[in-house]
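Minutes, project check-in
Item: structure for the 65-residue chain
Input as provided by the requester:
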Amino acid sequence: MVVQQTISLVTRGNSDIHDITENVAGIVESSKIHTGTAHIFVVGSTAPIGTWLHFTKRFVKCSSK
């Protein structure tokens, strides 16, 4: 079974960060699939996906400039 959902966000640029953990968890839970892989993809040449730890370190680094 394949489930596909879209999460749309508006960003301000300049290291704007969004935590989509709850969004992804909700999609996985509502899919009723118990075993598998959640594939997260972002469209955009400068839009990354990372772990919260990665973003936290980068945010602290950018904020301290």
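Outcome recorded: The chain has one domain: 1-65.
No further action items on this chain.
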